[in-house]
Amino acid sequence: MTHDDDRPRLSPGFGMPPFHPAYPPSPRRRRRRRRPDGATVSGVLTVLCVATLLTTLTVALLRPHP
pTM higher than 0.85, yes or no? Predict the structure, then answer.
């Protein structure tokens, strides 16, 4: 078993963020990007596939045959 006296003491500087007087910390802006839901992605892909299928069929039917 180890006792608290056996551990090496850490400098309190290790728990502090780096700081330099010439470069004060700037406020960070957090951007929360909304990730699309799986159902939304599935719906958009379904609409895209149906639109492609309808466009292909329309072009194939309206194209003059040789």
Answer: no
